[in-house]
Amino acid sequence: MPLSPDFTDPRPGQVPLLLATAYRTMTDRFHARLAELGREPLRPAHGYTFRYVASNPDATTVDLAAHLGVTKQAASKAVTELADWGYVERRPHPTDKRAQVLALTRRGRDYLKLADRLWAEVEAGLAEVIGRERLAALDRDLRAYLDATHGDQAVPLRPVW
User: Which of 71, 92, 98, 108 could disulfide-link to 87, CB 3.0 to 4.6 Å?
Assistant: First the structure.
């Protein structure tokens, strides 16, 4: 039994599997580049955490857990790992004495810049295979699909497996 979709299967319904496999391949390449650079063994959940904390300045671990669709304990573990590595810090919540606000440290913000550069490298690899024009068309098509299915509603970016 093959471990990935049969890329020659002509049946309808293969595009979601191909997109998932392509995403996994790109994510693996991204993490391989991180390893080459000697970075911590970050997991995709860490990446989702970085993005959420960066765009939600009042985020708490409870908010993060809801966004990621995981337990508070799982979110707390990811935050603790990132804090131990110096990427995230916990600060007192301005209005709730029991809660702490999550914030990226300078190292965390620098990591996001690096991640953006590495994702651009991964995307450039795709452009080498399919061409820049087809990549631009794919980008437009995926954005159109997401706009048609979600409109102005925010779509939580989180792992689903």
Answer: 108
- Residue 60: closest CA among 100, 104, 103: 100
Task: Tell me if 91 sits within 8 A of 59, measured CB to CB.
Answer: no
User: 65 — alpha (psi -120 to 50), left (phi > 0) or beta?
Assistant: alpha
What stretches of the chain adopt beta strand conformation (E)? 88-92, 100-104
- Residue 100: what are its φ and ψ, rounded to 5°? -125, 140
**Nearest-CA neighbor of 101 among 63, 58, 66?**
58
**Angle, CA of 49, 51 and 57, to the nearest 5°:** 90
Domain residue ranges of the chain, discontinuous segments joined by +: 15-150
CATH code for the structural domain at 15-150: 1.10.10.10
- What residue type is assigned to position 61 of the chain? T
Q: Which mean pLDDT values do the consecutive 10-residue runs of the chain (161 residues) have? A: 66 87 93 91 86 93 91 94 96 92 96 96 97 98 93 70 52
